[in-house]
Design a protein that fits this description.
Elements (H helix, E strand, L loop, with lengths): L10 E3 H4 L2 H15 L6 H22 L4 H19 L11 H5 L8 H4 L14 E5 L2 E6 L14 H16 L6 E10 L9 E11 L2 E10 L2 E12 L2 H11 L10
Antiparallel strand pairs: 1-5, 2-3, 3-5, 4-7, 5-6, 6-7
Length: about 260
């Protein structure tokens, strides 16, 4: 007799997994832990330097400056880079968003250095994240450096932003997980230089899979929608990867 297929994993409604109050506590506690607290003078200066670097990137993408001005700016930046190169280097990666939000993994410093929401990372726009009811909300304004189609945010940055917002939303399940599948439906062009609102909602849990959905709006117009399927992880395996990366050991920047 042929083997019978295994039954599908049970579908766990969100309200049976964690209460809204507990979800809010987990997220707010982890965001507080995920940004360096208290903010030291060094952390504040890192944020200031990141802000200045963002301005340079934005101006470089749109400037009509002549050759001489560009050359002088390049000389100044090369000198600054050489100065910073004199100091110890090391990874500031101490966690990841999906696990950190659940309150299960150490995450000090991650959010401030995230490439999407990190105020100390010049690659980030950054996206400001907060809770509204049972939704994770992210607001951001993307400049010229993020342009894809004329006047519009590159779809890759839209997708990456959803990954971050849905990653935060799925964390309200209390299950540390990483992105397994991210599906984006682009409805309309997403404009540059305009405040965007990302919304993420925890949908359900099925076995090891956590489902979250979201959308992004420019004003009242939905420009894209997303579904993320996140897979719970084994922390022992993840920690082994971190330990392997850190050997023979690089200098870590001090706070």
């Amino acid at each position: 007799m042929a083997d019978q297929p295994s039954p599908p994993p049970p579908r766990t409604p969100v309200h049976d997994t964690v209460t809204p109050e507990e979800a809010r506590r987990r997220l707010t506690d982890s965001w507080d832990d995920g940004v360096a607290h208290p903010l030291t003078p060094r952390h504040l200066e890192m944020r200031r330097l990141a802000d200045a670097t963002r301005l340079i990137i934005e101006h470089l993408m749109s400037t009509g400056a002549p050759e001489g001005a560009l050359g002088a700016a390049a000389d100044a930046l090369e000198s600054i880079a050489a100065d910073l190169d004199e100091y110890p280097h090391g990874s500031i990666y101490e966690g990841f968003a999906e696990a950190a939000n659940s309150g299960t993994s150490p995450s000090t410093g991650f959010f401030d250095h995230s490439p999407l929401i990190g105020k100390a990372n010049p690659l980030a726009s950054p996206i400001d994240v907060r809770l509204e009811g049972d939704q994770v909300i992210g607001t951001a304004t993307f400049g010229t450096a993020y342009e894809g189609p004329p006047g519009c945010v590159h779809g890759g940055f839209v997708a990456a932003s959803f990954d971050e917002i849905l990653g935060a939303a799925q964390s309200m399940s209390g299950l540390p997980a990483m992105t397994g599948t991210l599906t984006i439906r682009y409805r309309k062009p997403t404009p540059l230089h305009r405040e965007l609102r990302f919304e993420g909602t925890l949908d359900r849990v099925e076995g090891r899979k956590v489902f979250a959905t979201g959308r992004v709006l420019a004003g009242d117009t939905v420009t894209a929608e997303a579904e993320g399927i996140f897979v719970t992880i084994d922390f022992g395996r993840f920690k082994a990867l971190i330990d392997e990366r850190d050997q023979p050991g690089g200098d870590q920047p001090s706070a």
